[in-house]
Amino acid sequence: MYQAMRCPAVPDFTKPTGSFRLKGTK
């Protein structure tokens, strides 16, 4: 459960690395 919340990069992976990294740091 927590993994999915802390791993928002799954759906963001399709987007540019900028968006994926921004959400990952948050």
Description:
The chain is mainly α. The chain has one domain (1-26). Helix content is 69%, strand content 0%. It is flat and about 25 Å long.
Short description:
The protein is mainly α.
Structure characteristics:
3 helices; 26 residues; 0% strand; single chain
Q: Report the major sheet.
A: none
The low-confidence runs, each spanning 5 or more residues with pLDDT under 50, are none
Q: SSE order in H/E notation?
A: HHH
What does the average pLDDT come to?
Answer: 54
* Principal-axis shape: flat
Range of strand content:
under 5%
Topology (elements, then pairings):
Blueprint: H1 2-6, H2 9-12, H3 17-25
